[in-house]
Amino acid sequence: MDFKNKYREFSEGKLSQSEAKEFLEFLEGKEAEDLLSKEIFQLWSETIKSGDLPIDTNELWKKINHKRNSYSLPSQQSEPKIEKTYNLNWLRAAVVFLVLGLASLFYIQNRQEKTSSLELANEETMITNSNNQGEKTKATLEDGSVVYLNSQSSITYAKNFKNNRAIQLEGEAFFEVVKDPDHPFVVDAKGIVTTALGTSFNISTFNKDQKVAVTLLTGKVKLNQSGKDAYIELNPGEESLLSPDLPEMEKYKVKAADKILWTKGILRFDEADLDEMVEILQRWYGVTIKINGQPQALHASGVFDNQESLRNVLNVMSKTLEFEFVIDDQEITLNFN
Questions:
Q1: In the chain, fewer beta carbons within 10 Å around the N or the C end?
Q2: Which residues, 6 or more positions from 312, have their beta carbon under 8 angstroms from its beta carbon?
């Protein structure tokens, strides 16, 4: 064994777990004991010869010569030899434990530094895609999955997405997931966790009471509240409206295709009240809407294609909700009697 090279690789953390175990077992054996003893005594000898030893050897030798006549001869030659052998074995054992201790310390420290560096690297390689009001984007992720991101929304995920298919969502997005059984596709939206293998589903946090709406179009997904084991599964055409603190999880049937019309640029209101309509229009067109007067508690429905202007949308909605409006660049005022 090339001891010096192997020790260097061990201390630098370059050995595999099995190689490191083999090296530690070698250090505990007789061969390593003899090898380390030779290394120590050679180092000791070279230190004395080079004059680097922090002891005044000349002075020490004078003291020994000065008192040598007073030394009594040993009565038995075997006793010093036994003592010498014992001390040598003790020294060898100490050397082995010292090297083992230092090597293990260097090995662990090196591994910890590499782990810390890896964790730091992972923290530094997160990607965030975000849209402002009035913006909608489509993105293809590293694994081939497609994300349609709505206005005023964002997703955050690891750069190495193929091996870590986890996404944090704020706002609304529609996902077309490529199947990969070894790497489940996981979306966390305000504490509601959606897990899928290969499927398509929509998630929206644009709901009242801070709830998250998950709508399944194809395949199957599993939903659970972050930190809890209980879950429900959605089948195509089902939706669930959840929050992290709800005691029970429920699902219901919906027209799933209507839930993703926004990905085609189609604006849809379904019995929307004024607050909901204002929020959607601000997000959709990137404008600010102010309200004057006392609006009635009315609801409106309507579908508008991607070529429809804001003015035309307001014209239609004003007839149902009974308001007049003024457009001043990006600021809209709704006047109620």
A1: C
A2: 304
